[in-house]
Amino acid sequence: MNYMEDIEKYGQDVADFTISPFETIEMLHLRTKLHEVSHQLTEL
Q1: For the segment 3-20, what is each residue's pLDDT rounded down to a tens digit?
Q2: Distance between CA atoms of residues 35 and 25, nearest Å
Q3: pTM for the full model?
C-alpha cells in the first residue's frame, strides 16, 4: 500500500466542496484507514 497516495487523495477530497455524498462516504472510509495506520505506527 502506498500511504502517500491515500493521504494526497484524502487531501484533495477534503478541499473539494463539490463532491457527491458517495464520494464523501469514500473519503470518510479513507480517513478511518489512515487513522488506523497512524495509530499502528505510533503504538509501542
Answers
A1: 899 999 999 999 998 989
A2: 15
A3: 0.76
